[in-house]
Every structure is written in C-alpha cells, then in structure tokens.
Design goal:
This protein is of the alpha/beta class. The chain has 13 helices and 17 strands. The mean pLDDT is about 95. Bound molecules: zinc ion.
C-alpha cells in the first residue's frame, strides 16, 4: 500500500492512469532491440490529506540517474534562462567572491558556469557520473552525489555551507522528498537563500501537459503544497516567480523560517489564492484533468492516422523524456512516425523506449523532406521552428500536440 511521500497518509487516490511504460529516459541501443524492456505502471496519485500529486515509488533512483543522457547545454533556450537567472540572483542577493553557491543536480555545469564567470565560488552536486565529468572538464567543481541529509552534513563539514542553494528541475525528481528538503536546510547558511524551479502543477493541468508525467518525476507541485512541505522542515517560502520554462514553472525562494531574513512577498499569497480558487485543493480538479488527457490522445492518434491514409510522412523532432510518455500512452510507433531527430549526439543512433522510434541527426530531415515535423518538446517549439525553418522550403509543416493538436501554416 502506497503512502504519501510528504505526509505519510495512506489515503492516496489514483486520478489518472497512463498505462504501463518503460522509464522515459531509457533510450534503447541497436544491440538491445531484441531484448524486452522493464515497464512500470504510470499512475498519478493525489493525497487526500495534503493534496500532493505524486507517483508511487517503483525502483531505486540510482538506476535512473547514474548514467543520464540529458545534457542541459544542448538547449540554447535553457542556457539563456540560466544566464539571466544568475545575473538576477547575483544582484538581488549580492553574491560575490566571498559567497558560496551550491547547485543540486548541476548537470554539466550549464548554470554554474555563469557564476564562475562572475567570480562567485561554486560547487555542483550531480548524481550522474558521466554528466558530472563533463562539468569538471569545463572547470566547474562538481561532486558526484545525491543530496541527502548525510551528504549535506558532509558538504557542510567540507566548507560548502551555501549562501545560495539552487535546484532546477530536481525537487520533482526526488523520491525521498522529506530527506531532500531537510538536506537543503542543512546546506543553507543562516541568512542564505534556496531557489528551486519545478513545473507548476496548475499549468500542467490547465494546459493538459500530461506528457511531463513520467517515472523520473515523483512529485507534481502546486505552490500551496510546496509551502507546506518546506514548512515541515523549518523553511519559509518568501517569494515566487512564475516562469515560462518547461511549459510553466515556479521558482520559489526559501529561507530559514526561524531566522526569516526576508519578508514574504505578496506574490506568494496571490498565487496561493489563484490555486485554491481554481479548485486545486479538491479531487474534482484532477478528475477533470483526466478527461482532457483522453481528448489529446484522440486528437493525436486521429491526426497521425489520417496523415498516413493520405500518404503523408510524419517525422518527430526531439527525443525528450516527455515525448515518451505521449508516444507510449497513445501507442504511436514507427508505422505512424518514421523517426525522430535530436541535436544531442548522445541520443542519436538510439531508439525511443517502448515504441522504439529511431533517433537520428537533424540533418536527416533535410534529405528526407517529411510532410510534417512533429515537435515533441513543445516547450521549446519556437526555438525548434526557427532552427528547422528550412522545412517550409518543401512545404513541410510543424505540428505540436500539447495543449491541443495544432498544425502550423
Ligand atoms: Zn500527503
């Protein structure tokens, strides 16, 4: 029997089932095509006591993250986001040569490099050894570790207690949520600030972004729930930004609740009211969401089948984790989408998990001239449409499926 990873309640209600699928980041190599893949149920649960939306835990996370193929530096949009963030927080919190910035799940150093440029001392903490090695090669100090209370105590002993603890797209990924948030507090200097970015559950539901639900994302946060999670561990959320990244994210700012070095911004209360007004504290809200998900599935499958009937060819753009939830849930294989392309050379030559769609170099699109290019990472569709604008030369059209099927003229 599953228990809520925040409050421990056994009253978890399943609000959406996306079937039984492989792990979204486990692309398959040519040699392994004849082997079966491990699959796990993908079901969204909501706690009736604290309203945390979550997945049940199914496997030790070290298996997922120790050889991770996602390198943040391959997205120019994301790099610009990181650069702008570093500039903003460095000024707001007066970070300089005497400060320490620790980033949790620091990936290949895509963000910390901008602090290094400004002369701010940093440490990256990254569980995937192959990704951490790329950061170290670029001169970004990085330790291979998961953030736990034990590793946080060790880092503090080594002199890494932080003025700023950054975590982008990691809070949702941690199975041991309480241990992780307690560890953040341990890492934080008395007047320090934590910023965490994560997809906003409000936007996920309002825009039917069900494809961002996959096994590596254990929790789906609204602001009012994350405030409760942080409060349980002596941390106060004092400000929040609404961001456009990943289809709509929150960036929360937290500090020690007992020291409260910062006053709580009115943005916090305003967003909490918006969430409660939308019904996010009620089960009906999540049940309506499941109906919208079924609609998107119908639209996508109908589009692909009719394209096939008309003899049109559809290629995918991108092999993001979110694409795999969509492809597997809708049952879309090579018969409907011949291949997908990705700029990340670590993914090229592999096959998507479950549906086994080949991942190729974007150059293939110019040679093959497909009728439709279906952008799976809809969150960076503007960037992709600019990069791949050449498809319009042969009458190719861009397609996006979320929040609803849209074919661009
Ligand atoms: Zn709960």
């Amino acid at each position: 029997m599953a228990r809520c990873r925040h409050c421990g309640s056994g009253r978890l209600r399943m609000v959406l089932s996306l079937g039984t699928t492989p792990l979204a980041n486990s692309n398959v190599s040519e040699e392994r095509l004849s082997e079966p893949e491990p699959v796990f149920p993908l079901e969204l649960l909501v706690c009736e006591d604290c309203m945390l939306a979550q997945l049940d835990e199914y496997e030790a996370p070290d298996h997922i993250f120790t050889d991770y193929a996602y390198f943040s530096s391959w997205s120019t949009t994301w790099l610009e986001h990181a650069r702008a963030y570093v500039e903003q927080v460095s000024e707001r919190f007066a970070l300089g040569a005497a400060s320490m910035v620790v980033e949790v799940a620091s990936n290949d150093g895509y963000l910390l490099q901008y602090f290094v440029e400004r002369g701010v001392p940093v440490l990256g903490v990254e569980p995937a050894a192959n990704v951490a090695a790329e950061a170290v090669a670029k001169g970004i100090p990085t330790q291979v570790a998961f953030l736990t209370q034990a590793s946080a105590k060790r880092l503090v002993a080594e002199g890494y207690q932080a003025d700023l603890v950054v975590g982008n797209n990691v809070l949702a990924h941690v199975p041991a949520l309480n241990d992780f948030v307690a560890a953040l507090r341990i890492l934080l200097k008395p007047a320090g600030v934590i910023t965490m970015e994560f997809p906003h559950l409000y936007r996920l539901v309002e825009e039917t972004q069900f494809d961002t639900i996959y096994h590596e994302h254990f929790s789906y946060f609204s602001l009012f729930v994350v405030i409760a999670v942080f409060a349980r561990h002596g941390l106060a959320v004092f400000d929040v930004d609404r961001l456009t990244t990943h289809g709509g994210s929150l960036r929360i700012y937290a500090c020690h609740a007992d020291k409260a070095p910062y006053a709580v911004s009115e943005r916090v209360g305003a967003l909490e009211s918006l969430e409660r007004g939308a019904g996010m504290a009620t089960m009906e809200y999540y049940e309506r969401f499941a109906e919208e998900v079924a609609r998107v599935k119908r639209e996508v499958v109908e589009f692909l089948r009719s394209a096939k009937r008309e003899g049109k060819r559809v290629a995918g753009y991108g092999a993001p984790a979110k694409g795999n939830t969509l492809l597997n849930f809708c049952g879309i294989g090579r018969d409907l989408v011949g291949y997908t392309v990705d700029r990340n050379p670590h993914k090229q030559g592999l096959y998507t998990p479950g549906m086994r769609i080949p991942i190729r170099d974007p150059k293939v699109v110019e040679e093959d001239k497909p009728d439709y290019l279906w952008i799976l990472p809809w969150n960076i569709k503007d960037e992709v449409m600019e990069q791949m604008a050449g498809i319009r030369g042969w009458g190719g059209r861009f397609v996006v499926a979320i929040p609803r099927l849209h074919i661009y003229d």
